[in-house]
Write a structure and sequence with these properties.
Helix content of chain A: over 70%
Largest sheet of chain A: 2 strands, antiparallel
CATH class of chain A: Mainly Alpha
CATH superfamily of the largest domain in chain B: P-loop containing nucleotide triphosphate hydrolases
Strand order of the largest sheet of chain A: 1-2
Shape of chain A: globular
CATH architecture of chain A: Orthogonal Bundle
Radius of gyration of chain B: 19 Å
Structural class of chain B: alpha/beta
Chains: A mainly alpha, B alpha/beta, C mainly alpha
Largest sheet of chain B: 6 strands, mixed
Number of helices of chain B: 10
Radius of gyration of chain A: 19 Å
Oligomer: heterotrimer
Number of helices of chain A: 11
Chain lengths: ~290, ~260, ~350
């Protein structure tokens, strides 16, 4: 029984991280219709920025997370301005290739400064809580609580503030948004900024129980894509639900089926689902 | 020619086209008008097989084509143009048109490998067809220019030529005169008359009322997915329901 | 002056000169290593030609291309090293395997539009990598496959030597290019390009999307398999890293630099970049610092690459040489021109 609960815990942890990364990806897709292949690289840069701020600058974990979120948000905005904005009228294959270009560049730069080695990031939350035999490391609890807080905060921002409302409006109806005078440039930059910050925070939350290395974004971004396809590209609730589905599938699949193949579960799911429903699981109508 | 019976298309819970019945006669210009979002483009997509209707039937020359896929409907003689046509910008006009007659050819991979006689003959036929279509729309003089280097109006004509190269019986034209000036609009209207004179049937969606009234033999008016009127231009322009629909909040009525 | 050089390059003689250069290259090369590098570049060029079919002509960004390259290499490697096949039957086996797998993946993935297809193939590429890495019973996992057979020359040549192998690869490259040149000018190639222009328009022209896309995809994966099999026969030791996504990214870069959807672009892009990376040793590891921004700059400013931009330039020049009266007679307002060029 305890092992079962343990897997639920793992599923929640993984699902939270995946959900946060997928959330940024789905926001950008919903508003700009760009599948941002560079999103995983932003996640990776986020982890390295936190690592750098903690180890080399010596700031506290929380400040490192905030600093990293700000840096990556700015980086994402720069990408939007310099790369995606000029390509907004190009054939769809171009922005995908450009995103790949950004991904390759960021990875190579990080590798040049920090090398390809695996690094361990420390966190002040190293304790282990024991609830009647159910063992929960503090960091995992922090991940779950952090993710929940962020998702709630984002919801409040999107639903209750004027700026958030413009983002939603543009996601739902691009042409309409232009007609009522929404500044598309501002919304695009803001969306990229938010998505970058979310990726950096997710990376900083997850890094202490994982490792930091230049290729760490590969798997995460691919899973995030699987998640937003599952949840409907552009859908915010879909990203969270999809994140949980993949998180749980991996936790239980890895435990009860095979650890070696746990990374393949998400992709297997994707292949099966897209074979049956080419438009995704929850998508309404075709894009 | 084209007979549509009780055609309905639901998206989610909304009816984009609702219970429309209409008959388009051969060798006539049939126009579809209506405010934005009236379901005109959806109606075209249904006829062309791009969307599957929720219910209803479509008969082309008496043959039921309701659930046929797009490419087969095109082979049965339904050609169409779109509001915007993406062509290969860095290729010549003629190069872009050759593929138009592809649906009447059969060469496959094997023919390419051995450069079969059939392939050679079919490529010649496609090239001739493309030239013929280009000549029909009056653009023979630009055949060697890149698509990127021709004017907006010439692009419209190239799109017509591409549809004509498929050897259609009926042409569905979606807002052919959008984005061209009044003079050029008149030129495109002449081109449509020329199509009729060559035995084709034209079916068009258009917002430019002046053009419609001058060219259409029959008009169908859609509003919120429903047919609210049909008849000659005179009948339609005096129809109370039509006036109501247009005055009831659409800015295109003036155009 | 420039135009004269350009005209010279367009002549059929230019092709012959290039082929002649390729034929004498082993005698001009300073050492065997250069011949080896050139042979590797040719192998990559074959794979890039495959990518050009599905991505360049047909417009579908396939991110599993490196994975199919690896499948070709592994099929040949495993059949010869573990199952005792000799090279040429295993070589055919590798082609059949990549074609069949390409067909199966294509049937599922090509129903998906644009972004979905790219994401799906990205995942397929990763699944291939994971299987090669984890399925130890079949693939030897991270250890890789050793003792792969070299092609036997029927007692006439010894392909374990670099130079004969170079000519073998060159032969396949010429064959691959010959087929592509025939394909691209044919009705079939035009059908692929029509699909690139847009699914909707292609269907309205009576083109069966699935059949043509799957055909293009199978052709492209077979090219990848051919390249992979040659690669395995040359290095004779392969590992899961052959399926690394970076190989796919490399190939996309080669394709874009040379000119996507052009005939000579894949060759020029591959040869150019392989030699540049080779000659600047420090680039080997950090080439992506240059390649990444290069991709971005290319898609923004020169989406048709070197060859595509060159061809456009030539065409414009030759059109300009036609007497004004013959060229056009329509009245073009300046605003229209600006609109079209935008």
């Amino acid at each position: 029984m305890n092992l079962f609960l343990q897997q639920i815990m793992n599923g929640l942890t993984l699902g939270s991280i995946y959900g946060l990364v997928a959330l940024g990806l789905t926001l950008v897709y919903g508003i700009l219709h760009i599948p941002n292949f560079a999103h995983g690289a932003l996640y990776m840069v986020g982890a390295f920025m936190s690592y750098f701020l903690m180890v080399d600058v010596g700031v506290h974990y929380w400040f490192a997370m905030a600093g990293s979120a700000a840096i990556v948000a700015v980086l994402a905005i720069i990408c939007e301005r310099l790369v995606f904005h000029p390509l907004r009228h190009s054939p769809p294959i171009h922005d995908k290739i450009a995103a790949i270009g950004i991904l390759l560049f960021l990875e190579a730069v990080v590798q040049m400064f920090w090398g390809a080695d695996f690094r361990r990031m420390s966190s002040p939350f190293t304790g282990i809580l024991n609830f009647d035999g159910l063992i929960i490391p503090e960091q995992r609890l922090l991940i779950i609580i952090g993710a929940l807080t962020l998702v709630a905060g984002l919801q409040i921002f999107l639903r209750k503030t004027m700026t958030g409302a413009t983002i939603i409006a543009m996601a739902q109806n691009r042409e309409g948004a232009f007609l009522v005078g929404i500044d598309a440039n501002r919304v695009a930059m803001m969306t990229f900024g938010i998505s970058g910050a979310l990726a950096a925070i997710a990376a900083t939350l997850y890094a202490p129980i994982n490792l930091v290395y230049p290729a760490m974004g590969h798997l995460v971004i691919m899973k995030a894509f699987v998640i937003i396809i599952l949840g409907g590209m552009g859908s915010i609730p879909g990203a969270i639900v999809g994140g949980m589905i993949i998180g749980f599938a991996e936790a239980f699949g890895g435990f009860y089926i095979s650890t070696a193949y746990k990374d393949i579960i998400a992709f297997g799911l994707l292949v099966v689902i897209l074979s049956i429903r080419p438009q995704g699981l929850f998508a309404k109508g075709a894009h | 020619m084209l007979k549509v019976d009780n055609l309905t298309k639901m998206f989610g819970g909304l009816a984009a086209v609702s219970n429309v019945s209409v008959e388009f006669e051969a060798n006539k210009v049939n126009a579809i008008i209506g405010p934005n979002g009236a379901g005109k483009s959806t109606f075209f997509n249904l006829i062309a097989g791009a969307h599957k209707p929720t219910s209803g039937t479509i008969l082309l020359d008496g043959k039921d084509v309701t659930n046929l896929p797009c490419d087969q409907i095109a082979r049965l003689g339904v050609g169409r143009t779109f509001q915007t046509t993406n062509l290969f910008e860095q290729a010549t006009v003629l190069d872009n048109l050759i593929v138009g007659h592809r649906l009447r050819t059969r060469s496959g991979l094997w023919d390419v490998l051995v450069n079969s006689r059939r392939l050679q003959a079919e490529e010649r036929a496609c090239r001739e067809k493309a030239r013929e279509a280009l000549d029909f729309v009056g653009l023979s003089h630009v055949e060697n220019r890149f698509i990127a280097d021709i004017t907006q109006e010439e692009r419209k004509r190239v799109a017509f030529a591409l549809a004509l190269a498929t050897d259609p019986k009926i042409l569905l034209l979606d807002e052919p005169a959008a984005g061209v000036n009044p003079e050029e609009t008149e030129g495109l209207a002449d081109l449509m008359r020329k199509m009729i004179n060559h035995g084709l049937t034209v079916c068009l969606i258009e917002h430019k009322m002046g053009m419609i009234m001058g060219i259409a033999d029959k008009i169908m008016v859609l509003d919120h997915g429903e047919k609210i009127a049909e008849g000659t231009p005179e009948q339609v322009s005096n129809d109370a329901a039509v006036i109501e629909a247009y005055l009831g909040g659409d800015e295109d009525a003036a155009a | 002056m420039l135009l004269k050089i350009a005209a010279l390059l367009m002549k059929p003689g230019a092709k012959m000169a290039m082929l002649a250069f390729a034929l004498v290259f082993p005698f001009l090369a300073a050492n065997e290593y250069q011949v080896y590098v050139m042979a590797t570049a040719f192998i990559w060029a074959i794979a890039v030609y495959g990518l050009n079919i599905i991505t360049g002509y047909c417009g579908q960004l396939n991110l599993a291309h490196g994975g199919f390259f690896a499948i070709g290499a592994y099929t040949l490697g495993l059949l010869t090293a573990d199952y005792g096949w000799s090279f040429w039957p295993a070589f055919v086996g590798a082609l059949v395997m990549t074609a069949v797998l390409g067909f199966l993946v294509g049937v599922v993935s090509l129903r998906l539009k644009e972004h979905y297809f790219a994401i799906f193939t990205l995942c397929v590429g990763f699944i291939i990598y994971l299987l090669l890495d984890k399925w130890e019973e079949l693939t030897h996992g991270a250890i890789g496959v050793r003792d792969i057979a070299a092609p036997y020359g029927f007692g006439l040549v010894d392909f374990t030597d670099t130079t004969p192998f170079y000519y073998l690869v060159l032969g396949f490259l010429v064959l691959a290019m010959w087929f592509i040149s025939r394909l691209s000018k044919s009705l079939l190639g035009r059908t692929f390009i029509a699909i690139r222009n847009g699914d909707e328009l292609a269907e309205s022209l009576g083109i069966n999307l699935m059949r043509n896309k799957v055909l293009a995809f199978v052709l492209s994966t077979t090219y990848a398999g051919l390249a992979g099999a040659l690669y395995a026969g040359m290095v004779r030791f392969i590992g899961p890293e052959e399926a690394n996504i970076n190989h796919t990214f490399d190939m996309i870069t080669y394709l874009l630099v040379g000119g996507i959807g052009t005939l000579s672009g894949p060759l020029l892009g591959t040869l150019g970049l392989v030699w540049i990376t080779q000659s600047l040793q420090f680039l080997e590891e950090y080439r992506m610092i240059i390649f990444g921004p290069l991709l971005v700059v290319l898609v923004i400013f020169f989406p048709r690459g070197i060859v595509g931009s060159f061809l456009t330039w030539i065409h414009r020049k030759s059109q300009a040489l036609v007497p004004e009266g013959k060229r056009k007679d329509s009245k073009v307002t300046p605003t229209k021109e600006a609109e079209n060029n935008a």
